[in-house]
């Protein structure tokens, strides 16, 4: 049975982070993955050199919590071979397209992917990743969208940034088919997209979601911008004893993993790094399928939170705000204090299942 994770800044001094990371989920191989700059200028920080690839124990799943000690797969190497290697999902908001008419193409692929360093499960994807790619457009743009289904089951696409007849645009297509529709986002904000094929719980619970960020007509002030899509995973076993996503557990709403951008704890292993004085903007989308994200940054405050379309109706001086499943909100702060700031789902029964990361503010 694994003990609950300590959270730096809550359970001890920041210097405890080294031991914290040693015990957090699957962080060892992170040391081999630390490199490069994101398009936003974010740089990856080094995880402690003494984290080892085989150390394990961070993500507390249902079985751990119950003391049964029967995790869905053994610690260490995943039971299933991934179709693509473990890779941190780049949280940086991609740049806008040059024109005001934007072509967005997505292909459904059913793959085996990491949802934690030591857990690979069969997922259903848009363009091969969970979440799917971040779409970044402006209010008033024309978005021309095409979906191709290269999976084995019917799938579909539902953009929350669109106003369309769902029976037509969001209809399911069978394997080998494709569909196209166009829409013009009427409001700015952080929106979810997802497969809407019945049962929607199963399709979202299997990885078919992502974020579409819609900028207002007048750009928001310059900031380092990041997208976090929170979702939960429910892991069981198939007939051969391999881990699989479990619809009955999805109905139970007791997740095994809760993730930012599809992999539990990935931004503890490879933090998000900014510089002192940066303004930082998080677009937080709760994909669910069932649970909200109670977003909070330990040791910081949000000077501005937009519940709806920015820049209207900002909230100021916010410590924590809940993003409903199927919703998205924008959180802003000035990073004027150097340090290591955990960004968390402050509903810690879920946060400690993987929706915790580190924002490093370098001096
Ligand atoms: Cu689907």
Features:
disordered N terminus; binds copper (II) ion; mainly beta; 363 residues; Immunoglobulin-like
Walk me through what this model shows.
- This protein has helices spanning 17-23, 62-66, 166-169, 200-205, 247-252, 266-269, 348-351; strands spanning 101-116, 119-126, 135-138, 142-149, 158-159, 178-183, 189-194, 209-215, 224-233, 235-237, 243-245, 257-260, 272-275, 278-288, 293-297, 304-306, 314-315, 320-323, 327-335, 339-345, 356-362.
- The chain has a domain at 14-69 and 225-233 and 258-362: Cupredoxins -  blue copper proteins (Immunoglobulin-like), CATH 2.60.40.
- The chain is mostly beta strands and 363 residues long.
- The strands form five sheets. A six-stranded mixed sheet has the order 12-9-14-19-16-17, with no helix packed on it. It has a five-stranded mixed sheet with strand order 13-21-20-15-18.
- Mean pLDDT is 85; it is low at 1-74.
- Copper (II) ion binds at residues 124, 155, 195, 197, 203, 208.
CATH architecture assignment of the domain at 14-69 and 225-233 and 258-362: Sandwich
In N-to-C order, the SSE pattern is HHEEEEEHEEHEEEEHEHEEEEEEEEHE
Q: Give the strand content.
A: 35-45%
Strand arrangement within the widest β-sheet reads: 12-9-14-19-16-17
Rg from Cα: 19 Å
Q: What's the CATH topology label of the domain at 14-69 and 225-233 and 258-362?
A: Immunoglobulin-like
Instruction: Tell me the number of helical segments per DSSP (H or I, 4 or more residues long).
Output: 7
CATH class of the domain at 14-69 and 225-233 and 258-362: Mainly Beta
The CATH homologous superfamily of the domain at 14-69 and 225-233 and 258-362: Cupredoxins -  blue copper proteins
Helix fraction, binned, reads: under 10%
Distance between the termini: 39 Å
Main sheet: strands, sense, barrel: 6 strands, mixed
Q: Outline, from the CA principal axes?
A: globular
Q: What do the pLDDT scores average to?
A: 85
Estimated structural class: mainly beta
Q: What compounds sit in this structure?
A: copper (II) ion
What assembly state would you assign to the polypeptide chains in this entry? single chain
Q: How many beta-strand runs?
A: 21
Spans of 5+ residues with little confidence (pLDDT < 50)? Answer: 1-74
